[in-house]
Amino acid sequence: MPLFARLLVISLILGLTAANQATAADEAARYNRIHFQVERSHPVENDRMQAVLSLTAEDDNAARLADHINRSMDAALKTTKARAKVEVRSGSYSTYPVYNKEKIQRWRATQELWLDSSDFAELGSLIGQLQERLQVTSINFSVSSARRAAVEDELIAQALDAFKQRAELVRKQLAAKGYRIVDVSINTGGAKPIPIMMRATAMEAASVAPPALEAGTSTVTVSVSGVVELQ
Question: Mind giving me the DSSP string for 82-140?
Fold first, then answer.
């Protein structure tokens, strides 16, 4: 066999041997790896309130309908902007025909107003005032970003401690000399808003009492998952 061919065969054999050894070592390492997850959670008082109000009207004249919606929502915006502690933005606005026997009978329009505040009394009072013209679609309570982040930081520290304690427990139960953390990931699921659905009806009285509200709590949860390698 020519020298070049022999060198090529030897090179292939050495390469296969090294690959097999690496695979065996990798399989041995994987054999000693344990994956698990721990979770820590804490109830947190909701400190933000969001409300969605809307105005829905019908008319056989589309222009007259649009004028009514626009004037009513403009008045609602001016009323809201006078409340410095309440954030406001316009929501969706849609106009569509109402058919009767495939012919347009009239027009229907709806526009939303989104409100947000940390002052529940102020926003509740405003809602009562706006209900003279608008309908309350929904009210939600949630945890503010700043408060949620602070609670999550505390829970992350607790969850990481719990992860290490669980790893030590596994090591002892399996009679291993030690362990090392191969991989770890932290998941912080944000607290979901607590909804309070309201009847979508406007009030005809000149003065409307604020709605009865209870903010309640949301649960903030942090999970830590990872892989430890026993030694």
Answer: T-TT-EEEEEEEEEEEEEETTEEEEEEEEEEEEEEES-HHHHHHHHHHHTTT-EEEEEE
Return the SS3 of 209: coil
pLDDT per position as a tens digit, 176-211: 999 999 999 999 875 555 555 444 444 444 466 777
Distances (CA, A) of 181 to 33, 178, 184: 9, 10, 7
3-state secondary structure of 206: coil
Nearest to 74 by CA among 95, 61, 55, 46: 55
Let me know how long the chain is.
231
pLDDT tens readout for residues 99-148: 988 899 999 999 999 999 999 999 999 999 999 899 999 999 999 999 99
Token pair belonging to 21: 């050894």
H/E stretch holding 43 reads strand 33-45
Q: What is the pTM of this model?
A: 0.71
